[in-house]
Every structure is written in structure tokens, then in C-alpha cells.
Amino acid sequence: MKIDFIHKQSAHCESGVISNLLRFHGLKFDEPMIFGIGSGLFFTYLPFVRLNGIPVASYRVWPGHIFKRFAKRIGIKIERQKFSTPQAAMLELDRMLEKGQPVGMLTSVFYLDYLPAAYRFHFNAHNIIVFGKENGRYLVSDPVMEQATDISAENLTRARFAKGIPEPSGRMYYPKNVPDNFDLEKAIWAGIRQTSDDMTRIPVPLVGTKGMHYLSTRLRKWPERLGNRKAILWLGNLIRMQEEIGTGGAGFRFIYAAFLDQASAALKNEDLFAASRKLTKSGDQLRDFAYYAGRVCKDRKSDTKSFAELADMLDQCAQEERRIFSELYALSKSK
Amino acid sequence: MNQDNVPQDKENLNEGKLAKLYYATDENGHYVKVNSVGWEPETVAMQQAWEIVDKDVEEARKKVMQGKASPVLYFMKKNIMTVPMLARYIGTIGLRVRLHMLPFFFARLSRKTKEKYAFTFRITVEELIDQERLKQHHEN
Q1: How far apart are CA A235 and CA A222, in angstroms?
Q2: What residue spans of chain A are helical by DSSP H?
Q3: Same domain as B120, residue B54
Q4: A160 interaction partners in chain B (CB closer than 8 Å)
Q5: B49 contacts A236? CB cut-off 8 A
Q6: Which domain holds residue B85?
Q7: B60-113, pLDDT tens digit by residue?
Q8: CB contact under 8 A, A290 and B44
Q9: Overall number of domains in chain B
Q10: Quick one: B29 and B59 in the same domain?
Q11: The domain that contains B65 carries what CATH number?
């Protein structure tokens, strides 16, 4: 069976899945709009939480939060399920497809064999939509892919029941109710208020623009503290977090700037477009940061001078973003 | 980033399967969507991450060849897993998985446990215990 479903590519998997699912249910939201209203942008650096021995740096909110916040602000009711056995999970999926309902689900990238091999690490919070089954293979709309694709039942089962952190446990979801009308203006300002608040006003040095500043101070000392090999490794990991699959460039800054651009058009608010332009500029600086970091990684030489320069670049971005989001906070408060 | 500056580096790891979506600006600063086939700094960072995986796999393979570790170690590294993760797949605790990585304990595993490992690594039990094949893995 095949459901009449339109796949559109997006940069980030979570906002992309929401966008594609809602289009099926008759609501038109472009990806940046969902990312912005769901307050997807963030920054955290957690030196004491390590994945494979490398500290966690993230340019966005925890997986699942964009969906939760967006659904709340627009007023969409989501039905969520999780399962204890793969058999039950696949049976329920088949039942939903029989009913003509495309289903979003959490998967592990490791088992999605339509992706290039280089991307297939154990990342267990990737969102995809399954919208049909043909000849025993499931039809998949993976938001990061240009076209819809398909996957074998075995690989999909494994992807849905991958172990590690987090465990998808066959989680799947679909909109139960979509509202006929909603207050877009209120939702946009609520999204902006939360993001600008998160970025500038949480009194913890590890998050928001303070976290970016903190990372820059730590980064400066990496060559002495860690030695050549590890410093390069940690820097490479930072580039991957910022630029690898799903960020739309510059650690989600460009998606967010696109959101501000679209919001400015929707609300006819020139201030938001001005903020979008500033964020574009500071995003360009983050791209420069990744570019020079990539050069350092390629040469495999971690001299203190280049790390100090990289730290300066990052710190500059932190200050710039601090200004942008403080302004946005003041703006959203006045609404 | 201006839409004309979206990188299109031909040397990438995408196997022609993927052209990622980027958000870039037009001449007026408004956003448009542009596909990109690859960007060098990102490719470098990814290659670097895979080099470490490959090095770990090769080290594990040598250990197994020398009789210092069981094939469980090799296949765990090959599947980029960690001990706690593998323990979750097998349905046991990390300590037992660590023991199974020693040839002494691995030789005494029941067929059922070996099947669990083989299923997790997506191979047959024969492939799991066949050390000759491991030698060839390197040559390939």
C-alpha cells in the first residue's frame, strides 16, 4: 500500500518531519517556521558529559523538544506510542499504514542503509516518516534526503529498536488533531521569547551565549592540556557538531535566521529582518571558524597560536549573538 | 552566507547519495534553500572520526589474532559499539560482555549466547568464530 504523500527535503530531521507530516494533514509550515516556533536554537557545552571520551557540545535543544514546543504553541494534538517488542511495533505500524496514516518515528542512523556509509554512526534520535509498504519494503520519507526512499523491514526494525543512549524503543507518532485556526503571531513571539531567553538569561555558564564564551576559554587551552592528537580530535568533533548533517549550516544559525526572515514577512515587522541579517553575519563567522578549524585538523598541528585565534573567533560570535538575542528578547517582551 | 558561496566540494563522503539542504541568502538578504554536495572542513572532520574507528578495529583484530582477545572485541569495534551498548543488545551487564571478550570465556559460551552476538553483529555464528576470515578481513 502506498499513501499519497509529498516528500520535501529539509535541513534538520525533527523540523523536517513535522513539516512533512503537517502538509499531509493540510497545514502548510515551512521548516524554518517550525524550527523557530519550536525554539530549536540553543547552545550547550558540557565538559563533564562525554561521548566516546569527547565533551558534548550542542548547537540546539534536546531531541524531541522542538516537536513538543511547536505542537503546544500551535495547538496540535500528537498521538505517541512506544513498544516493548519489535513485533508489536511493526504490527502497529502496518495497521496505521493500512488506515492511510503516515507515521513519524525515531530511529538509529546506523541501520539506515540508504544514507552514505560515512554518516552512519550510532545516533539514535533520527526522525523519519514511513508512508507505505511495497514488496515487503517500507517507503521512507527521510527529511535530509532529496527524494523519498525505501528500506527493508529488517533494517527498519533494527533502527527502531537500537540500543544505547537514547533508546528509540519503537517510538512513533502522528498528529491526531490539527487546529482549524491558530494565533500565528502569538506562537512566533512565544518561540522568539523562549530562544532569546535561553540564549542570554539562563544563569548557568555552560549554556547559551555564555556557554559559547566558556567553550572559547577552554578551547584556548586544549593544545597544552590535551596534547596534539586529542586537541585535533576534539576540534574535529566540534566541526561535526556544528556542520554535519541536519544543521542547515553554521550550527542551525542559518535556519534560525531564515525563520526570522519569514517571521518578518508574516508579521510585517522590519526589526525581525534586521535581526535576521545580523544573525546571518554572525553565522558567517561561525562558518569561518569551522573553515579554519578544518584547516588545523587537516594539517594535524595544534599550535597554541592557531587555537588562540580560533578561540577569539568563537568568542566574537558569542558576543555578537549575545547582542542579537538580547535585542530580540527586548522586542519579544514588548509584544 | 550568500547562495553563490554555498560550498560544492567534489571531494566528499556522500557517495553521490546525498546533497544536503542549506539555508543561504539572496542579494537582498532574504533566505532561499540551496543544495550542497559537500564542504571540505566537514569532510576532513568526518574522515578523522573514521580514521580513529579504523585504527581501533585494526588494533582489535591484531589482539584477536594474537589470542589476547575474542572476536567479540573485534566485531564490537567494527560495529562502532561500546561495552555498555553491546551489553544492552545482548541483554546482560557490561562485566559479562568484558569477560566474553577474553578467549577463555568466549570458548565456553553457549550456542545461544553466540547466536545473540551474531545477530547483533549481523553475521552468522560461523562467521563469528571463524578466525581465518579475520585474517582475510585485513587483506581486503
Answers
A1: 9
A2: 13-24, 31-37, 65-74, 86-98, 153-160, 184-200, 208-243, 253-267, 270-299, 304-333
A3: yes
A4: none
A5: yes
A6: 42-139
A7: 999 999 999 999 999 999 999 999 999 999 999 999 999 999 999 999 999 999
A8: no
A9: 2
A10: no
A11: 1.10.260
**Contact: A115, B17; criterion CB under 8 Å:** yes
Q: Do B10 and B66 belong to one domain?
A: no
Nearest by CB to B18, from A115, A237, A255: name it: A115
Digit-coded pLDDT (tens) for A243-280: 886 788 888 999 999 999 999 999 999 999 999 999 99
Cis amide bond preceding A179, omega within 30: no
Residues B94 and B112 in one domain: yes
Minimal CA separation from B70 to chain A, in Å: 22
B76, B105: one domain: yes
A234 contacts on B by Cβ (under 8 Å):
none
Contact B48 A232 (CB under 8 A): yes
Q: A173: Cβ–Cβ under 8 A, 6 or more apart, which residues?
A: A67, A78, A79, A80, A81, A103, A104, A105
Confidence of residue A51 (pLDDT cuts 50, 70, 90): confident
Q: What average pLDDT does this structure show over A323-329?
A: 93
User: pTM for this structure?
Assistant: 0.91
What's the rounded Cα separation, in Å, for the pair A7 and A281?
31
- Residue A168 near residue A106, CB atoms below 8 Å: yes
Which residues, in sequence order, are CB contacts of B77 under 8 Å at separation 6+? B53, B56, B57, B59, B60
* Domain identity same for B29 and B97: no
Q: Is A95 on the interface with B (CB under 8 A)?
A: no
Q: Which residues of B touch A297 (CB under 8 A)?
A: 41, 44-45, 48
Whether residues B60 and B86 share a domain: the answer is: yes
Q: If we measure between CA atoms, which residue out of A205, A259, A265, A269 comes closest to residue A32?
A: A259
The answer to whether ipTM exceeds 0.85 is yes
Do the chains contact at B49 and A121, CB–CB below 8 Å?
yes
Domains of chain A: 13-37+77-177 (3.90.70.10), 184-333 (1.20.120)
> Which residue from A minimizes the CA distance to B78?
A121
State the count of interchain CB pairs (< 8 A) between A and B: 126
**B99 and B111 belong to one structural domain:** yes
Cβ pair A146, A9 in contact under 8 A: yes
Q: Are strands A103-107 and A41-51 parallel, antiparallel or unpaired?
A: unpaired
Nearest chain B Cα distance for residue A155, angstroms: 10
